[in-house]
Design brief:
Blueprint (H helix, E strand, L loop, with lengths): L1 H27 L1 E3 L1 E3 L2 E16 L2 E5 L6 E4 L6 E2 L4 E5 L1 H10 L1 H4 L9 H14 L3 H11 L2 H10 L5 E3 L4 E6 L12 E6 L4 E8 L11 E5 L8 E16 L4 E11 L11 E17 L5 E2 L5 E7 L2 E6 L1 E5 L4 E5 L6 E3 L12 E3 L1
Parallel strand pairs: 1-22
Antiparallel strand pairs: 2-21, 3-11, 3-15, 4-10, 5-7, 6-9, 7-8, 9-10, 11-14, 12-13, 12-15, 13-14, 15-20, 16-17, 17-18, 19-20
Helix pairs in contact: 2-6
């Protein structure tokens, strides 16, 4: 009887320990997270930065100095082709030209008689004066009547008109102030036709092709984005310096689809150029891949409660992982963190 009691007490004491065995065993097994191998879309991109410019612009150049009597536009105004942008004070313009004809006439040539040309050349060599200085001295010697003759024959416009429709991008005209001959009085741009002139590093330019689609962003139009197409790849490279090094870059032109009022010529912008798209690509996270002593890449699959090693071959790197070209099947259960597995075939618990 006493023996039965002792045995019963031993059994009672062992029952709790027996119930704890599965918990103890489970706690001893390493845990791991898994991902299911599935097909994804591979998109390869090249980043380029540059400046937005107008594809169409026109400048109004003046052959002579003019004095605007009234300027009707300012930078940022929209004008139509032929619209009057300024009235010209013809009398004041002629007076300015008469006082200083050499700076007031753009490409007007001073005629030097043939018999004096050689003499001036010799004098220039002896005196050290430039050809321009000699011509000015010769013209000044002709007297004020010559200047008056020049101003009388000049055709000075009474009005200045816009050479095309668009937005005033630059304006040098000021009421009452003489213009400078041979320089642009006004620049007009068409903001409905914009492009991004960007630079691509020499190591990536071979990936870019005509017709590649682009995604364009910039701080000047924060919160908005635009699309575009690579329409030109320039044939020469140039040196481009950064804080770290110097490399050769190649310019490309990206025509922007449907620019609006938020986009302006002169803005800096960044383009993500889509150079390749492939569907049905198998990929795994970067941390799922390991390398053995021979440099061969492998992953661990979760099979029947164990971590089973599988050698793989990899392809392109993507933002979210690495393409697997061999050794992985659709639906395979891949252990996400390779370093969490100590050895091939060990038991693991999925969490």
């Amino acid at each position: 009887m006493k023996l039965k009691i002792v045995v019963l007490m031993i059994v009672i004491l062992l029952i709790p320990g027996t119930l704890l065995i599965p918990t103890i065993v489970t706690a001893a097994v390493d845990t791991a997270q898994v991902v299911i191998a599935k097909e994804t879309r591979f998109v390869d991109q090249v980043t380029a930065t540059g400046t937005i410019e107008s594809l169409e612009e026109a400048q109004l150049y003046l052959d002579t100095t003019v004095v605007p009597d009234q300027v009707y536009v300012e930078v940022g105004d929209y004008v139509t082709e032929g619209q009057v942008i300024a009235d010209v004070d013809v009398n004041k313009s002629k007076a300015v030209i008469a006082q200083n004809p050499f700076n007031s006439l753009g490409e007007t040539e001073i005629e030097i008689p043939d018999e004096l040309s050689e003499t001036l050349s010799v004098f220039g060599a002896l005196s050290g004066l430039s050809e321009e200085e000699l011509i000015q001295a010769f013209s000044a010697a002709q007297g004020g009547s010559k200047n008056a003759q020049i101003t009388q024959t000049l055709e000075i416009p009474t009005q200045l008109t816009a050479p095309m429709s668009g937005v005033i991008g630059d304006l040098t005209l000021q009421t009452g102030m003489p213009t400078q001959a041979g320089t642009a009085a006004v620049t007009i741009v068409d903001n409905s036709k914009l492009a991004l002139r960007a630079e691509v590093g020499e190591s990536q330019i071979q990936e870019v092709s005509h017709g590649d689609r682009c995604y364009i962003t910039g701080s000047g139009f924060s919160g908005k984005h635009y699309t575009g197409t690579v329409t030109r790849i320039f044939p020469t490279a140039k040196k481009s310096s950064t804080n770290l090094n110097t490399e050769s870059t190649v310019e490309i032109l990206i025509e922007i689809d449907q620019p609006d009022q938020y986009l302006m010529a002169g803005f800096t912008a960044k383009a993500q150029i889509v150079t390749e798209i492939r569907e049905n690509v198998l990929a795994v996270p970067y941390e799922a891949i390991g390398q053995d002593e021979d440099g061969k890449e492998y992953i661990f699959l979760y099979e029947n409660g164990k971590a089973v090693q599988r050698y793989i071959e990899t392809g392109e790197e993507m933002q979210s992982g690495v393409e697997v070209t061999a050794g992985l099947g659709l639906g395979d259960v891949v252990i996400q963190n390779n370093s969490s597995i100590r050895k091939n075939g060990q038991y693991v618990r999925i969490v």
